TrEMBL record:
This is histidine kinase. Gene3D superfamilies: 1.10.287.130, Histidine kinase-like ATPase, C-terminal domain. Keywords: ATP-binding, Kinase, Membrane, Nucleotide-binding, Phosphoprotein, Transferase, Transmembrane, Transmembrane helix, Two-component regulatory system. It comes from Paenibacillus albus. The keyword Iron does not apply.
């Protein structure tokens, strides 16, 4: 009797460990729904090997305890694949290693597998805990009745007291295991619902932001177009209004492009990029901004030879220009902007450092997140686009900053050629 209880207790720990591992591993590994069955199988196989190596299992305990609980668990919760693997594994282990009665095992587990798959597809998705318990105990009862009936029919005998102890452990463990696994699945469902709620909230915020950001330049454009329709307007004013209207349309178009780049960043024209040449080509664009803000620009190339990365030149320039403009705007009272490039055996590093207002630790953690910005009239979209484009071109971006001392942004790309 005592040995039966010990075996059942060890088996219960083995099953509950599998349940807990699935709860722990799934969120960390970001396992998709279609891969759940494979995860169940991997954990089941690894733990089964450990269990079989460490335990000397009684054949009847194996047949009436481990087989029905795990086969029903796999088939009902994870579908036909997990259930079929459990079914096949228990048939092989039961016959070749443990020594269970083969006919009773084949017939009982086959019926258990088919009913478990039927419950999985027909009822489980809308099943409450009480209904789940009822179906699980019904499956176990059918299996036990079939197995014990064939077992006695084949001429085997077992003490009723031992059978009662085994079955009591089976039913109690079934209730505990299915309750635990139900809670595991319920926890996963709540996590998925929370993720979807956050995703839809962000989509709503993006939509509202798009509407707000585009409305401003379009309103300006509409105003200038209306002014162009006034009678007796001179040619000079007409040209000025037309130029302002075009600027508003281009501004709106740039906002839409930024949103598209953030939503679905892609590289359409990938080719080798000369990093030094691209940085030097930006000087005419950033010099007027730096002069207006009394900012000194230093460009340091630690290696004289050209260094190349693979990407799209236009989007690479867009990333650098956004970062440089942010650095200049972070120094309203003037300062020094330093752009440094260096190369090691495998990577190219681009460092953009300013001596501006800097950021605290909380602000650093939120860099690249939707709608985060340190500017009064900013949207945070430019930096979101930069982070997305750097990643899609296979790079990594890191920020270091101290309040009042400035910010250092470093981008790393794989060296090409």
């Amino acid at each position: 009797m005592l040995s039966i209880l010990v075996h059942e207790f060890h088996g219960l720990l083995y099953i509950l460990t599998a349940c807990m591992l699935i709860l722990i591993v799934k969120p960390r590994a970001l396992v998709k729904a279609k891969h759940r069955g494979l995860l169940f199988i991997v954990i089941f196989v690894l733990l089964s090997i450990c269990y079989m190596l460490m335990e000397t299992t009684e054949p009847l305990v194996f047949a009436l305890y481990l087989i029905p609980i795990l086969t029903a668990l796999g088939a009902m919760f994870e579908g036909w694949l997990a259930g079929a693997v459990a079914w096949a594994a228990f048939l092989v282990c039961g016959y070749w290693i443990v020594g269970t009665e083969p006919i009773a095992t084949v017939v009982g587990t086959s019926l258990l597998l088919l009913l478990g798959i039927l419950f999985h597809h027909k009822w489980l998705r809308t099943c409450e805990l009480s209904q789940l318990m009822y179906k699980a105990l019904l499956l176990i009862s059918i299996y036990v009745a079939v197995y014990v009936g064939i077992y006695y029919e084949q001429g085997y005998e077992v003490k009723l007291s031992e059978l009662a102890v085994i079955l009591a452990g089976t039913y109690l463990s079934t209730a505990l295991v299915f309750f635990t696994y139900f809670q595991v699945r319920n926890h996963e469902r709540m996590q998925e619902e929370l993720y979807n709620a956050e995703k839809y909230q962000m989509i709503g915020q993006l939509a509202a932001s798009i509407s707000h950001e585009i409305r401003n330049p379009l309103t300006t454009t509409r105003g200038f177009l209306q002014m162009m329709g006034k009678p007796n307007i001179n040619t000079e004013a007409l040209e000025r209004y037309r130029a302002h209207a075009i600027e508003g349309i281009e501004h709106a178009n740039a906002i839409i492009t930024d949103y598209l780049n953030y939503a679905k960043p892609s590289i359409e024209d990938a080719r080798p990029i000369d990093v030094k040449a691209e940085i030097n080509a930006l000087i005419p664009w950033i010099s007027p901004l730096s002069v207006m803000s009394t900012i000194e620009i230093k460009i340091i190339h630690e290696q004289e030879a050209s260094c190349y990365i693979m990407g799209e030149p236009k989007k690479f320039q867009q990333c650098l220009l956004n970062l440089i403009k942010n650095a200049i705007e972070a120094m309203p009272g003037g300062g020094v902007l330093t752009i440094t490039t260096r190369v090691d055996q495998a990577n190219v590093y681009i460092q953009i450092a300013d001596t501006g207002i800097g950021m605290n630790k909380l602000q650093l953690k939120r860099i690249g997140m939707p709608f985060f910005t340190t500017k009064e009239k900013g949207t945070g979209l430019g930096l979101m686009v930069v982070v997305s484009l750097v990643k899609v071109m296979g790079g990594q971006i890191v920020f270091n900053s101290k309040t009042g001392k400035g910010t250092i942004c470093e981008i790393r790309y794989a060296l090409y050629g």
